[in-house]
Structure formats: C-alpha cells, structure tokens
Amino acid sequence: MPELPEVESLSRFLGERLVGRSVARVYPVSIHALKTYDPPVSALEGRAFDEVRRHGKFLDLRVGGLHLVMHLARAGWVRWSDRLPEAPPRPGKGPLALRVRLGEPDDGAGFEVTEAGTQKHLAVYVVRDPLEVPGIARLGPDPLSADFTAEAFAGLLAGEGRQIKGVLRDQSVIAGIGNAYSDEILHAARMSPFKLAAKLSGEEVARLYEAIGTTLAAAVERSQGLALKDLKAEKKSGLRVHGRKGEACPVCGDTIREVSFSDSSMQYCPTCQTGGKVLADRRMSRLLK
Question: What are the recorded Gene Ontology BP terms (predicted)?
C-alpha cells in the first residue's frame, strides 16, 4: 500500500510534469472507483493543472478550480506515459481504472491509474473542495508538517487506550502512516507494537516522535528523483523489518518475527523491541503492555 513517502514522491513527480498543462480527455475506465458524480469527470477537460499536493495518503490534483483526488488503497498506482495509446480504453476486468490524456501541445502524454488484484478499493473523486472527501475531512495532523511538534504528538497520545501500533495507523490521529512504516517507526524507536499509547513514559514518547520524523523523512529522501515505476521497489529495499520475516535484524542480528491478523501482518525484532520475548501471534496478545 502506498503510504506517506510514496504518495509524497508521486505528488512531486506529477507536479513537475502536470502544472501548467491542460487536460484533453479523462477516461473513467473502472466506474466502481469513481466515488462522485457532480462535477462529472468530464468537467476536468479543457482545464489546466494548477497544483499537485498530498493529504495523508490522498493525492490531490487541482485542475482549474476543481480537484481530482485519489486514494490508491492497497494495490493502486499511477503510471506516467509520454505517449499514451491512441485508442480509447475499454472497460473490462483489467487493472486500468482511469486514464488522463493531456492536450496540445502535449497531446499524447498523460497518466493512468491502475489497481492490481481482485479486491477493488481504489477511490477517485472530483470535487470543488478536497474537504468534501470524507477521508480527507477526518485526517489528523501531517507528521511532516511544522505543526507536528513533540508537544502536539504527546497530546495526541494522552488518554489513548489503544496499542501504539493501531494508534500510528489511525489516519484520524496521524495522517499518512500505514502498516509498513508503523513497523519501521516502532523498530527505530525500540518499542513493542502492543504497548498501550497512554502508558508510554515521557522518554518513550520523545523517542517515538523522533523515530516518526527520521523514518518518514529518510524514506521521502530516498525516493526523490526516482521514476514512478521504481518507487515500489525502493520502498521495499529501504524497509528494515516490515516484510522481512525470518531475516536477520540489521541492528542486532536477531530473527525478525511476525504477528498475523485476518487481513494483514506486522513484523518486529524481539531483541530490539520486546526485551527478547516473542509476541503471541494473535491480535489480543498482552505481552509487554
């Protein structure tokens, strides 16, 4: 799933190529992905891109007063092409969900939004204000913004009775962190994913705050200048524990372990994070709360 660093890189990549260029045609190939109908996607045609930005994991392309907003979900992605196919795409069972072709003098260039797999959760909106998108309206603070201070972070955790792994992934608490980077942040902070947020000491809160900033900033830095096709591979290569079950921890050499849930899993290092204890492979483990 694309998270904050990848969506930030996507927004920068597209911003460099789209701002000032006009939309010739928009093809909504997968109707299930389109979550709005007023304005219609055809309202984007003939308008120029003004800005590309990010809200948490949402991409926001401002087009002549309207906003083309996308949430790529678990398996969505954006593909840029200097020469899109001439023939209009046909709706079908393939991965293509949306195609945007640029107008003159850039006729033929543009991008496609795709979604792999059978579970379709990609979401595309055309709105007048990005706050009309429910997921954006309920976002918490952005961890890369100047307003995300250590004091503000401590306030978010005060009275929070959930495990810290779930808190980090809650978009209404902090925007943009998902399963992968929450694993990475907790490893960098040397913290059990099952610790209760409200019971963290002041030193632990400070350590976690620093890990959030350094982990996300480093991931964004690694992605700068990469082509869109290389961003996924870069993310995977840069992860130290997530997706690396059975491998050696790069910090201490212990074996990276996994806790599996119904639809996801998390990875951690027992030596670095849980005092050497192996967490029970079930959601309600009470180790190291």
Answer: base-excision repair
Please give the residue that has the higher pLDDT: either 228 or 131.
131
The 3-state DSSP class for residue 128 equals coil
CATH number, domain at 184?
Answer: 1.10.8.50
The CA distance from 216 to 289, in Å, is 26
Say whether both 133 and 159 belong to one domain. Answer: no
Question: What percentage of the chain has pLDDT greater than the value 70?
Answer: 97
- Residue 83 belongs to a domain: yes
Q: Name the domain count of the chain.
A: 2
H/E run at residue 229: helix 228-238
In the 8-state DSSP scheme, what is residue 48?
A: B
Q: Provide the residue range defining the domain that includes 62.
A: 4-137
- Residue of 38, 58, 77, 41 lying closest to 130 (CA atoms): 58
268, exposed or middle or buried, with CB in 10 Å at 0-12, 13-18, 19+? buried
Residue 104 sits in the same domain as residue 173:
no
Distances (CA, A) of 153 to 60, 150, 232: 25, 5, 29
Q: Within a domain: residue 145? A: no
In a domain, 113, yes or no: yes
Tell me the per-residue pLDDT of 195-239, one tens digit each, with 9 for 90 and over. Answer: 999 999 999 999 999 999 999 999 999 888 777 888 877 888 889
Task: Please give the pLDDT value at position 288.
Answer: 45
pLDDT per position as a tens digit, 69-116: 999 998 999 999 999 998 999 887 789 999 999 998 777 899 999 998
Handedness of CA 158, 162, 165, 171 (dihedral sign): negative
What are the Cα distances from residue 209, in Å, to 161, 185, 280?
18, 9, 26
Spatial distance between the Cα atoms of 220 and 252, rounded to a whole number of angstroms: 25
